[in-house]
Amino acid sequence: MRARPQNRKPRRSARRSKPTATSPNRGFGVVLTKGSEGTVLSFIVRDGIWDDATQVQGYTELGRAVAPAVGGLPMKVRIVNTAVEPKKEIPLS
After folding, report:
1. With contact defined as beta carbons under 8 Å apart, do 29 and 38 qualify?
2. pTM, entire model
3. What is the spatial order of strands in the sheet that 28-35 belongs to?
4. Which of 24, 45, 79, 80 is exposed most, by the fewest CB atoms within 10 A?
5. DSSP class of residue 1?
6. Which DSSP string corresponds to 32-91?
7. What pLDDT is recorded for position 18?
8. C-alpha separations of 27 from 3, 23, 55, 82 in Å
């Protein structure tokens, strides 16, 4: 095994640092659909998250942040349970 120079930091794997579409340790998954309803970004979350106004606001802001990368506004953010049943829908325009 080669020794690493003293002044060099270990490299982090980019793969480990990026969240995945279904990231169980982060507490949510994401599904993007485009169809007759337009663009819908669905967040699959633990039970009860849709009743927490702070959490809902966070997912709404996340939807706005990714909107340019998925076709822009208007679009919908849906908060769904683990059975992918809609619990809350937020139209973004």
Report:
1. no
2. 0.70
3. 22-23, 28-35, 38-45, 75-80, 86-92
4. 24
5. -
6. EEEETTEEEEEEEE-TTGGG-HHHHHHHHHHHHHHGGGGT-SSEEEEEE-TT--EEEEEE
7. 36
8. 38, 7, 12, 11
Which amino acid, one-letter code, is at 6? Q
- Amino acid identity for residue 24 in this structure: P
pLDDT at 14: 41
Residue 29 CA to its chain's centroid (Å): 6
Copy the structure tokens of residue 62.
């996340």
